[in-house]
Amino acid sequence: MLRPVVDISNVQKIYGKKTENQHYALNGVSLTIDQGEFVGIMGPSGAGKTTLLNVISTLDQPTSGTIKISGTDLTQMNQTQLADFRSEKLGFIFQEFNLLENLTIYENIALPLSLQGVSSKKIKPSVENVARKLGIMETLNKYPTAVSGGQKQRAAAARAIVHDPALILADEPTGSLDTKNAKSLLGAMEDLNEQHDVTIMMVTHDPFSASYCKRILFIQDGAIYKVIHRTGSKQEFYQEILDVLSEVGTSKAME
Ligand SMILES: Nc1ncnc2c1ncn2[C@@H]1O[C@H](COP(=O)(O)OP(=O)(O)OP(=O)(O)O)[C@@H](O)[C@H]1O
Ligand SMILES: [Mg+2]
C-alpha cells in the first residue's frame, strides 16, 4: 500500500486566547488524500477552507491533531525543517499570482529550484519542460507586466510544479481569471493530474472549477459535512455540485 500524500487526523485550529471568545476555525477535521487525487474544498465564506489549506501547507500550525504529508509528521518539525519541507514537497497556486515583478517569467518559474540550490544547468530543462506543458514558452523572457492575466496564472502554475512537488495546493486559483483563462488553467491542472499523476487540493467557490475535481469535500463551521465523488462527466458533476450547494442554502435558511 502506498502512503497517502495527505493524512490529517482530528485537526483543530482555535483562534483567540482561552480567556477570550474562542473561534474554532477547524473543529476536528480528519481526511486522507492519495497520490494522484484531485480534491476540491468548497463551503461558505469563513467555513475554514483557507485555514485547512494553511495548516496542510505548514504556513499555519494547528492547535491540536496530527498532519502527515507523504508520511512525514509536520507537527514534530521545527521551523527550519518546515521551511525545507515546504520548498521541496509543496507547490502553491494562489488567487493573486504572486509573481515577482522584477524577475522574468523564466526566473519566476525557476525560483523553487534556485532556492533549493539546484544548478542553473539543471534548472533550464526543467523550466522549459513545464513552460511547454503549460503553453507559455514564448513568455519566458518577458516580465510579468508584459504578459496577459492567463499567462501569468499559467506561469504561477508552472512555478508550482517545476520542482515536482508531492502535492499542489491551490486557493481560488481561477478567482481573478476570465472564463477563457480559467478554463485554460483548469485544463492544465487536469492534465497534470491525469497525465502526470500530480496530487492536487483546490479550494474554490466556483462550481464550474470544482467540476474538474474527482472528489469534493464540503466544509461548514470548521468541519467536513459532505463528500461527493465524480463518477460521470464534468457536466453531471457540475449539476451535482449545484444541488449540494442549494441544499446547503436551504438548510442555512431554515436555521
Ligand atoms: N488570524 C486569524 N485570527 C482570528 N480568526 C481568524 C484568523 N484567520 C481566520 N480566522 C477566522 O477563522 C474562520 C475561517 O477562516 P478561513 O479564512 O479559513 O475561511 P474560508 O473558508 O477560507 O473563507 P473565504 O471563503 O472567505 O476565503 C473565519 O471565521 C475567520 O474569521
Ligand atoms: Mg479563504
TrEMBL record:
CDD domains named among the record's database cross-references:
ABC_MJ0796_LolCDE_FtsE
**Do the record's keywords include Nucleotide-binding?**
yes
Keyword ATP-binding carried by entry: yes
Segments forming domain ABC transporter: 6-246
Q: Which UniProt keywords apply?
A: ATP-binding, Nucleotide-binding, Transport
User: What Gene3D superfamilies does this protein's entry cite?
Assistant: P-loop containing nucleotide triphosphate hydrolases
> Superkingdom, according to UniProt?
Bacteria
Pfam families of this UniProt entry?
A: ABC_tran
The family annotation for this protein states: Belongs to the ABC transporter superfamily.
Name this polypeptide is given: ABC transport system ATP-binding protein
Q: State the organism of origin.
A: Caldalkalibacillus horti
